[in-house]
Amino acid sequence: MNKRGTTLSDNQDEYEESWDEDAGSPYAEELEAFLDWMKDAGYTGYTRKAYLGDVHEFLESHSVRDKPLDEIKKRHVLSYLSGARSRGVSDSTRNRKHAAVSCFFKALMELEMAVANPAAGIKKAKTEQNKEPVYLDESRLTAFLQSVEGKYRTRNLTVFLLMAYMGLRVGEVHLLNVQDYNEERGTLQVFGKGRKWRTLPVPSAVAEFLGLAIRERLTPWRDGENALFISQKGTRLSIRNIQQIAADTFDKFQEDVEPGQRLPYSSHKLRHSFATMLLRQGTDLRTVQELLGHSSIQTTIIYTHVSNREKQEAISRLDIQLPLPLQQGQEEDE
Prior knowledge:
About 45% of the residues lie in helices and about 5% in strands. Strand 2 and strand 3 form a beta hairpin. It is mostly helical. The chain contains 13 helices and 3 strands. The protein has helices spanning about 30-40, 45-60, 75-85, 90-110, 140-145, 155-165, 170-175, 205-215, 240-255, 265-280, 285-290, 295-300, 310-315; strands spanning about 180, 185-190, 195-200. A 3-stranded antiparallel β-sheet has the order 1-2-3.
């Protein structure tokens, strides 16, 4: 039970895994043990699903399929990871797959079902450090929010506001319950990564829409459903739903832009925009870290990027004193 009186698994029904399809798998017992281990360790349903998917893929890969686990070596893991890279996955996705396989064997070792971790010692892929960041500045963010329309406009706009002006993750929006909002105090209780709670002040403009969203909240299909955001099916709005709503809205927002010129906006970019705006207003890193719910300030530092406009403005402030041009026929000193 969490402090709201509901289990986290109740809030993550769409991420509960079924093992029926793996009944005949030679790794069924190990996979089920891995799932139990992740649940006990407090991994979210979203992470469990991602890791299980990666481990399934690894165990079904050409070099591993049906091989006894104690015969799997480091070269087999490398073969799987290099195969993923050849299919065009990003460095970060490759690293997640590596982490999933490593976590799988770590769990089995702790459960005395394996004696070694063949994924240990394999280096992470170097991700791009100087890639131009994608975010919305204040004017673009306002234009995006103004473009939100449709039957569920209030709900969807409130979801975007929570990410863009309070920095919530998609998974945190998904887990919100009605009672997490204290209208009198103007605060929102957020359950984030690492199973940690944080209390956030709600900006007055966001509070206006949040109150409206609660009043216009769709009727849940199940009695006792406390989810703040309800889908048209009457269930808690899932992470996948939120991501798709954001993707569709961003597509419409950029429909007049040539396909090759469109920016890869997503729901997470709204959180990125929130952090960027705070830092550019002079908010200290420690405060931004607390607001975002980062366990390490090193994670927050990635948002301290500098835009081309800021680079240009910095250069334009230089007082450049050029030497007088040489007169015609005048020779330069050697």
